[in-house]
Amino acid sequence: MIYATIASKHGVIGYTKHIAAVYSKHGIKVNAICPGTIFYTNDRGNVKSETYG
Cβ of 24: how many Cβ atoms within 10 Å? Predict the structure, then answer.
């Protein structure tokens, strides 16, 4: 599941950069907000972090 999240986030970033390049000559700024890592309860066995130990 994490791979789909990574792929979709990179897709949003790439699309945002493209749209920003196209519309920057018109003085329009484009931004995207992407969340950081989101841990689900079923990820506890797969991810080692300070929160889950």
Answer: 11
